[in-house]
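Troubleshooting: if your tokenizer reports a length mismatch, compare your output against this known-good record of 212 residues.
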Amino acid sequence: MTRSRPGSPTRGRVRCGRSPTPGCTAGGGAAATPAPWSTVHRAGTRSNVLLPEEIAAILAVLLVAAVAVALTLFSDEKTLASEDQAPASGEQPAARPTTSPTPAPLPSTTPPPSPTAAPTVVVDARCPDPAATGVTKQGATAYCSRLQYTDRYLWSLRQGDIAHPILTAPPALSPGPTPGDAESPVRICMEQTGQGRLRCAAEILRANRSMP
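Known-good structure output:
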């Protein structure tokens, strides 16, 4: 082995030869110097520190998990509520009473009764009802009126008692017809209608025969 001289540039170094020398390898090379312990300790503690990006990713995963759990719980509660409201198996829901609408009354198809048409009458012919009215062939209104001094009622163109054309006072009570019974209606017909004697007599006779 060669030793360095004092003051030479190789001072402090170990030159490795063939013989075993401390600090040298079997091949003659210098052995690697181990790193200090403090440096190794700092490099090992670097992996225990979380970066901001890693913290954000962990929080996002936790948030998604919490939302999934909340949705699952809400779905379960909704399912239970629908099962509580549903009728039991084999039971039929109670039928609601139905009320049929009241049909509207149908309009009446029966026409209202028409007023009774006044009968066609002949002036000074007999009339059955003192309160009745009639119409002549000429369209004039006739009234069933009482002949003065008698209990006879004749058709007249004037309301009220008919003035007797023959009697001027009440006749005396006697059995049989009153004087002028046949003549009075003819004269009244001639006076109220202006017709002749024969025509008035014929029309009065025909009308009286048709009465019941």
